[in-house]
Description:
Elements: H1 3-13, H2 20-55, H3 61-76, H4 79-93, H5 95-115, H6 119-122, H7 125-155, H8 161-190, H9 193-198, H10 203-219, H11 226-236, H12 240-246, H13 248-267, H14 270-280, H15 284-312, H16 315-338, H17 342-360, H18 363-368, H19 376-392, H20 395-404, H21 409-428
Helix pairs in contact: 2-3, 2-5, 2-7, 2-8, 2-10, 2-14, 3-7, 3-19, 3-20, 4-5, 4-7, 4-19, 5-7, 5-10, 7-19, 8-15, 13-19, 13-21, 14-15, 15-17, 16-17, 16-21
Amino acid sequence: MTDTEMVRRSSRIGAAPVGRWQQTRSILIGSIGNLIEWYDVYAYSAFALYFAGSFFPQTDPVAQQLSAASLFAVAFLMRPVGSLLFGYFADRFGRRTSLTWSVLLMCFGSLLIAVSPTYATIGVWAPVILSLARILQGLSQGGEYGTSATYLSEMSEPQHRGFYSGVWYVTLIGGQLLALVVLLVLQKLLLTPDQLKAWGWRIPFVIGALLAVYGYYMRRDLAETELFKTAKADATRVSFWSLIAGNWRGMLLVIGITIGGTSAFYTYTTYMQKFLKLSVGLTDDQTTLVTAVSLLFAIMLQPIYGAISDRIGRKPLLVGFGVLGTLGTVPLLSALHDTKSPWVAMGLICLAWLIVSGYTSITAIVKAELFPTAIRAVGVGLPYAFTAAIFGGSVDYVALTFKKNGFETGFYWYATACIAISLVVYLFLPDTKTGSRMDRAV
């Protein structure tokens, strides 16, 4: 299809009437906040192994990580607030405005962590400042998810929305991989372990702030989506709260879709590094390498799975994840716990990604296709943020609590139960590829 043909087709279906290159560029720029957001999330999680002692005075390493994990979880409680705030602006005033300001707020959160004094310097105020920084990041991250998923779905051609959803998730996982690359470079090339614990952990947060400034600069000139322009007049005639009330079923579906997927995703990303070090017993270098390679593998899977969903539908992938995740989580995590080989651990995590990618690759588009344009950013973002706060951001805390109480396998069953709940939803969920509400204004 030529660019001219695509422009004509886009005008008929409501996607942005731009050339293919401009369309792809806009999608990537719109998704860059995901990369920065998840860089920040993973930088906090990965470097907590080094900075926890600077903010929490406990001598037990597990207790220090538990304290850091509690702040990781608390910040997620701000995500629903961020989703409602930025989602409202996205649905009323435009996707570009919301995306631009959410990435700028990320900058302040990262910068605050980078310059925060330690417990030895200012006592209890150190974790208070760290908490404030994570709250700012939580607000930004809450607004980013729903708005960027909405922008992606509205800029994509209908027949390729699954593929672009996979590309969108590449930026998300790519942020985590970038954080790991920074960690690996600091570990292997630039700093000693003592330097990392003393001050080197600040470097990734400086990088995060600079990335956010770059994201702000790139997003200033984003094209607004045609679907939003078309729906804006109709949307302003309907009360925002009436739109929310009229789409409560879709929001409940987002919660059900997300429970299992978000718990699995956080298990094999943010928690996995701690699991490999504290439970499997790998060295710092082995932990970083295994996690980085498995994330690279996950990145390759996302657009492939997304493209498959464009051919066979979204539902088969979700059901596949639900069935295999319910049956395979306990055996996978048990085998991972018992191995001492980094190569076996790498293979097991990659196997897990073959399962989890059935959810991750299409989650953005499945949720976006449930809502009309006038409430899409809030409809996607708010219930997701609420669910991620409870079942995603708490994964580290829940897992470490099970471990601290001598019942680590209890977490395996917890993760399985979350996926099983979502499987029930997947079985009764209509395939959003054929029943999409993307072209509806309200």
